[in-house]
Amino acid sequence: MPVYVRGYGFTDVREHWNKSMEDLALEACIKALEMAGLSGKNIDKIIVSNALGEYLNHKGHLGALIADTLGIINKPAIRVEAASASGGIAVHQAFLELKGETARNILVIGVEKMADVLPNSIYTARSLMIDREYLSSIGATMEALEAIILRLYLEKYKAEHENIMKLAVVSHSNALRAKHAQFPRPITVDTIKRSPYVADPLHFFEVTAPADGAAALVLSNETGSVEIVSSSASTDRFRFFERDDLLWLESVYMAAQDAYNQAKLTHSDIDFVELHDSSTIMGVLEIEALGLSEKGAGHKLLEKDIGFLNSEMPINTFGGLKARGDPIGATGVYQIAEISAQLFGHAGDNQIDNAKTGLALSVGGLGELSVIHILKKKGGF
Amino acid sequence: MSREMVPEYWRNREMYLRPMGSVCKDCGSKYFPPRKICLKCGSKNLEKYELSEKGRVLSWTVVRYPSEEFSKYSPYVLGLIELDDGTRLVAQISDVSIDEMHIGMRVKMMIRRAFEEGESGIIRYVYKFVPDIKEK
Ligand SMILES: [Zn+2]
User: Fold this and answer.
1) pTM for this one?
2) 3-class SS at A68?
3) Which residues of chain B have a CB within 8 Å of the CB of A239?
């Protein structure tokens, strides 16, 4: 039984000082339900994706809390957490239930509220995604480990850092006219180079900023014109330094192979991609593991100006994590909503031509867990 | 966040003060952190062994925006190190200026102060690495 996107909705990604986590979730859900032509009564189950509520907001038990906010009582509601892959894994769980016909319409809500805490708490919060004993308790942060991986990449593949920075340039360019994007303004390689290091040699403008936002999906096995044709997840060794190849994202590769098989297609059939660009270097490693370039050649692909909306392979069609913004637990749900917007033909100024098949990649931490979805326009491909 | 930090530190004292790896007695695979089940052959027949105390820097960074526990100590150098027994780990590198840092640098393990937990909290120690001058 096919699984469809029946409706989607999202809030702007920015600092929402006057809105709570519940306010943001409600705003996104109302839009998704209206588009689906359904009310709360038609929803069989609620799945909430949130990564850091306990730490950032002192809020837990978010399944029941968000269900109550929506006025949906007497239905099952759960919250899933998988670090920065929370959104991807929430959609994956909904997909499995709809395939297994344990539900007909599921509301998936991704929400994160990050702006209420001070900046150094954000670094602590992101550190929850990496191992406590062997990484965060000895002084490592997400950004520091991404920087270590970047330096290793530059050395091993003799890559120009400027080419890796281009991924951020592409993302900002694609966000220019995206109404919900956090940073709808252009940046250049020079701007990035002039920004301070967050962790040498990784610059501030190569990583994401704290953001508030919520995105919602009504997923259904009853009807819809955009189909989720693959949903796949895979893990890797939890401490990245144990991996045989430190520059290879095996979880992305394994999930991608499975996703391509499920959809009976290859990477060359994909029209556009939403990467999990928590940093420029992670985006480059993802390009390679998805098969969009040879191993070690992601930086060369970026040199050729790929990724822009009018290019052969648009990447991050509303700006990705870097420019649309990265409200962590909501991000994976935004990706599916944005791909749906492209396939429904509702992407406005960001609409890409002949969008028929899109891929979303949601990555937890440094690739400890990756989730891939492939969406197709009904009758497309 | 208020948390009783002593138990975590006590539980892990061996790991912080003399990190041990594990070696599979069936296939010889070595692991850090130590594992109870061998990834390669599935054996549960693993025993702890003393890691090499020397190694080389595979990559490194300068942590300028640390988590709250380390906010007093930044900037500091954090390295990805391959030990001479082939295992790898991430650790702070001390007694070195940023200008001196380079890939391939020989380093050796020391026990140093990690951080103090508030005014009356414990002082945590942890393995760090310093340049191995003798070998150069
Ligand atoms: Zn073994």
Assistant:
1) 0.96
2) helix
3) 33
